[in-house]
From TrEMBL:
Principal EC category: oxidoreductase
Organism: Paspalum notatum var. saurae
Protein name: Probable cinnamyl alcohol dehydrogenase
Catalysis: reaction(s): (E)-coniferol + NADP(+) = (E)-coniferaldehyde + NADPH + H(+); (E)-caffeyl alcohol + NADP(+) = (E)-caffeyl aldehyde + NADPH + H(+); (E)-sinapyl alcohol + NADP(+) = (E)-sinapaldehyde + NADPH + H(+); (E)-cinnamyl alcohol + NADP(+) = (E)-cinnamaldehyde + NADPH + H(+)
Enoyl reductase (ER) domain span: 77-406
The EC number(s) this enzyme carries: 1.1.1.195
Cofactor: Zn(2+)
Pathway stated in the Swiss-Prot or TrEMBL entry: Aromatic compound metabolism; phenylpropanoid biosynthesis
GO biological-process terms attached to the record: lignin biosynthetic process
């Protein structure tokens, strides 16, 4: 999700394979000339792949750590074993043995090149839980043996206003954990947690508190912080608030758990009556079928806030009607078709609509500590690495309750 939005913000006319420097090259003489001179998509992908391979060869020659992962080589999205090199650790780097890595819908979009920005070979994965195996001389926060996590990004400029306020996730120079461009380390594409090890600056690593089941914790590093951080930011974490959660999938089910732990009254809003029992099982107080006009009418003006987790297009005006005056809706899903926002749905009652993309490093650490205190974990199906292609096929059909998590350490070697 965030890859797509950042691509739109920084290159609104297209979603190209990123260049090797933030500023790119000189502008084309004209749009027509650029169109005529541009190589085909296949040629561009071949050049990008060759460039990646050259950089990896240089890294290996300079002493980079050998790594084993699973990667997609093209837009079929099929993953297979892949040998590559991690960068040479620097003074502030932490080397991590990956134990578990969750599978996010964003991973599916990237390996299939749905957003046009895949830099093959792509090693997915940004919900990483592991153990520290080595630290640089300047590392002060972690030591060998610590259990840690790495989420959606592994770098930012650390000097802009967003970074200064702890919102590294909104930095214009944010570096994604997978399929990002790490300009601070030679411009090589980043490779994620579908691998045995990863090297990350300590500034983007979080500590996993004792007592959290590691497999159920992995999805919290993306799904968990994505719903936790807007609840806190918009004051929806106060006890006694009435919070609506739209959708009961990978994001929605953990949103219910966090909201209940905050002391909120929680209503799950879904098009599927069949999800009622599961919603109640996760702690929801009420269940609202959005296709039932009578149920929707009875709930008008009853909620302080709504977290909308649905990634398919859906009308939001009926949902906004459920809010009290000055109520707040936060959208964390990413429908491909633009949503419609009628002015009458927000202006007369002063209602707000905001978006949210994961959270900062501090948000993620606070979320994990809150999860440990309240026993919150994602509902997961743990798989072996050699099942990953089947898992992606099932994910594409929404056939998972509620997140896939790969037992990387327990299966990667045998899968290869």
């Amino acid at each position: 999700m965030s890859h797509y939005f950042h691509a739109l913000i920084h290159s609104p006319s297209s979603l190209p394979v990123p260049s090797s420097s933030p500023g790119g090259g000189a502008p084309a003489p004209s749009l027509i000339a650029a169109s005529v001179a541009s190589p085909s998509r296949a040629v561009r992908l071949q050049r990008a792949k060759a460039s990646v391979e050259r950089r990896e060869q240089v890294m290996a020659e300079q002493g980079g750590t050998a790594a084993l992962g699973w990667a997609a080589r093209d837009a079929t999205g099929v993953l297979s074993p892949y040998n590559f090199s991690r960068r040479v650790p620097r003074d502030d780097d932490v080397t991590i043995k990956v134990l578990y890595c969750g599978i996010c819908h964003t991973d599916l979009h990237i390996i299939k090149n749905d957003w046009g920005n895949a830099m093959y070979p792509v090693v997915p994965g940004h919900e990483i839980v592991g153990v520290v195996t080595g630290v640089g001389g300047g590392v002060t926060k972690f030591k060998a043996g610590d259990t840690v996590g790495v989420g959606y990004f592994v770098g930012s400029c650390r000097s802009c206003e967003s970074c200064g306020k702890g919102n590294e996730n909104y930095c214009a120079g944010v570096v994604f954990t997978s399929n990002g461009v790490d300009y601070a380390h030679g411009g090589e594409p980043t490779k994620g947690g579908f691998s045995d090890a990863i090297v990350v600056s300590e500034h983007y690593v979080v500590r996993v508190p004792d007592g959290l089941p590691l497999d159920r914790t992995a999805p919290l590093l993306c799904a968990g912080v994505t719903v936790y951080s807007p609840m806190v930011r918009h004051g929806l974490n106060a006890p006694g608030k009435h919070l609506g959660v739209v959708g009961l999938g990978g994001l929605g089910h953990v949103a219910v758990k966090f909201a209940k732990a905050f002391g909120a009254k929680v209503t799950v809003i879904s098009t599927s009556p069949s999800k009622r029992d599961e919603a109640i099982q996760f702690g929801a107080d009420e269940f609202l079928v959005s296709r039932d006009p009578e149920q929707m009418k009875a709930a008008v003006g009853s909620m302080d806030g709504i977290v909308d987790t649905v990634s398919a297009w859906h009308p939001i005006a009926p949902l906004l009607a459920l809010l009290k005056p000055l109520g707040q809706m936060v959208i964390v899903g990413a429908p491909s078709k633009p949503l419609e926002l009628p002015v009458y749905a927000i202006v007369p009652s002063g209602k707000g609509v905001a978006g949210n993309s994961v959270g900062g490093v501090g948000d993620c650490q606070a979320m994990l500590e809150f999860a440990a205190k309240h026993g919150i974990g994602a509902e997961v199906e743990v798989i072996k690495m050699d099942y990953v292609n089947t898992a992606f096929e099932r994910l594409e059909k929404n056939d998972v309750r509620y997140r896939f998590v790969i037992d990387v350490a327990g299966s990667l070697g045998s899968a290869a």
